[in-house]
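Hello,

Following up on my earlier ticket. Below are the two sequence lines again, exactly as submitted.
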Amino acid sequence: MNLLLDGIAWILDPANWTGVGSIPERIAQHLAISATVLVISALIALPIGTLVGHTGRGKELVVTVSGGLRALPTLGLLTLLALWLGIGLQAPIIALVVLALPPLLAGAYSGLESVDRRTVDAARAMGMREGQIIGKVEVPLGMPIIVGGIRSATLQIIATATLAAYIADDGLGRFIFAGLKTRDYAEMLGGSILVILLALAIDGLFAIIQRLVVPAGVRATRTRELRSRPPRPRAVVGRPITEGNPE
Amino acid sequence: MIEFRGVTKQFPDGTVAVAGVDIVVPPRKTTVFVGSSGSGKTTLLRMINRMVDPTAGQVLIDGTDVATLEPVGLRRGIGYVMQNSGLLPHRKVIDNVATVPLLRGEKKAVAHARALELLDTVGLDRSLADKYPSQLSGGQQQRVGVARGLAVDPNILLMDEPFGAVDPIVRAELQQELLRLQGELGKTVVFVTHDIDEAFLLGDQVVIMQHGGQISQAASPAEILANPADDFVADFVGANRGKRALHLTEVDGRRIVVDDDGRPAGVLAS
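Thanks for your patience. The regenerated structure is below:
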C-alpha cells in the first residue's frame, strides 16, 4: 500500500511535470507511438478485413494468420526486430502493428459478416455495385463491431507501447524501465499507473464512439433484434447445470 | 415480354434448380410462378435481373438476351420486391424508396418528391416518410418495399414471395392493393409464391412448377382448374377435393354451393 502511495506521490510531484522527459512529454510520445501504430495497422487490416467480410472468401486464411500473429510474443518479436533494425522506433512500431492486426481484422470481417444477408441481397438486386454495397450498407451497419475491433486494438497498443522504451527513449515505458534500473519503485509504479489511466481514458472514449456509430434505425430495435442475442441460451442463468449431479 | 428459352440452372454442388424451362411471360400481365420449395421458382425469377445466371439457355427481355446486358444497369431498371421487404434498416422510409433513383444520379429533391407520391400510391401516410423501417408494422414495411420497387417506374416488377411473412389479414389486404395497383399501372409482374390461392387470385397466367425445376402447367387459373395437365397439378391445386370441389344442393328452393366437406360456400346467383 505504501508503494502505491509512493507511486501516486511521484505522479503528483510537480518536479516530474516539467523539463526533459516530463510526464506530459512522455504521455505525448506514448500517444504519438500508439496513433502511428493504429493508423498503419488500420490501413493494412481494415481493407483486408472488409474484403474478407464482404466476399466471405479467405476467412480461414485470415483467421489462421491472425491466430498465428496473436500467438507471437511481442517482447520476443521486439528483441528480434531490434537486433535486425537497431535502436529506435522502427522495431517497436512493427512489433506493435503485428499485435494490432488480429483484433482489427476480426472487427472488420465480423462487422461486415454481421449484416443480414437478405439486406445485402436486396441492395444488390436493386442495382448497387459491390463497392456501394460495402460503403452504403455493410460498413454503416457493421460499424459498431468494426469500431469494437479498433477499440480492442487501441487498448492493446497503449498497454504494450510501454515496450517501446525497451529499445528507444520514448513513451511512458521509460519511467518503468528507468525505475527498474535505479530501483526507484515509486517512479516505476507511477509510470505504470499513468499507462493504466491513459488506457482506460482512451478505452472510455472509444466506448462512447462505439455507441455513437450505431445507425439510427438500428438503435430503435436493438434489444428486440434476434441476432444481437447470444446464439445459445446461457445455461447458468437461473438454472444451474445439472450435469454429473442427477436429481 | 420476358422469354425463357431452354433455361437450366445447375449449381456447383450438382443441384439442378431449373431444368430446361421454356415459358413466355406476357407484357402488362401478372405471371405467378407457384410451387413448393425446391421447385426453382425463385431461381427463375432471379434470372430475369441476373441475380442468377443460367448454366444453359437464354432469358430474353423484349428480344434482348439479358446475358449481354450489364447486371447493375439491368437491375436498376427492374423493380424488385422481396420477402421481409429487404429495406435498409439504417435509412428512413423516404430514403429507402428513393434509393434506386439516387443511384441513377437523380437529384435528391426530385427523388424525394417522387418517393412521397409513391407512398400515396401504395396507400401509406406521408408522415411515415421520416420513420425507420423498424418503426413500421410488417404490412407497412412491405408496402414501402413495393413503393421502392416502383420508384424508377420500371416496366417489369419482380416480386419474390412478397407477402409470405405477414399475417393472413394483412396479406389479403396487400393482395387487394396489388390488384388495384396492377389495374392502374399495368406492369409486367412476375410473382413467386408457394400459395396456390394467392397464385389464382393474382395471376393472369399461373405457372405451376414441380420439384426439380420443371414446369407442369402454365395457363390461366380457370384453364388449370378446368383442365389440369396431370395428377400433380390436379393434386397441387386441389381440384378434386376440399374447397375447390364444389357442388350444388337445394335448400328451401334456393341453390346452395357446398364444398367437398358439405360446408356451404355460397349461394348460386341466378
